[in-house]
Amino acid sequence: MTVNELDRFAAWIEDEIRRRGYDIDSPRGGGKSRLADEAGVHRAAVTRLLQRQSMPDLETMRRLAHALGIPVRDMLIHSGQLTEEELPLPEAGEEGGAGAGTGRLSLEEAAAALGVPPEQREMFLRVAGQFIPEEHTARELPARRKRRG
Q1: Region labeled Disordered — which residues (predicted)?
Q2: pLDDT along the chain (149 residues), means of 10
Q3: CATH 1.10.260.40 occupies which residues in the chain?
Q4: CA–CA gap between residue 10 and residue 1 (Å, rounded)
Q5: 3-78: which CATH topology?
Q6: How far apart are CA 1 and CA 149, in angstroms?
């Protein structure tokens, strides 16, 4: 990771944090602490990111994304961890799967689209499932998406 990538990501996440009403600019605003509490991460992790000292680890990134209401996919792409090509979205109206037309894939669909071998799918589902908000499980996602649609 380069300094420019960290700076670019920190600038993007700062805008997202401010847009969601966290006061991260005034010393006594409490926005960093409130965000850290809501995300369940250490305040130091938020401070280090905003001061461009370090990129959060994947678990911290997942928690921040959840607290901010940002898709983990966006966090991973903006942080430079992965590219849009590595995390493709199906095109609108694409047939098949519960995520068709929603711009979202179930974990099973993602595994198939990425070519994860059958003998490694269960491990893929467990690892990738860690990046889905806790109120959902990999198996519930298709049903929940159909109800929302």
Answers
A1: 81-104
A2: 86 94 89 95 95 93 93 90 82 49 70 82 84 53 40
A3: 3-78
A4: 13
A5: 434 Repressor (Amino-terminal Domain) (1.10.260)
A6: 38
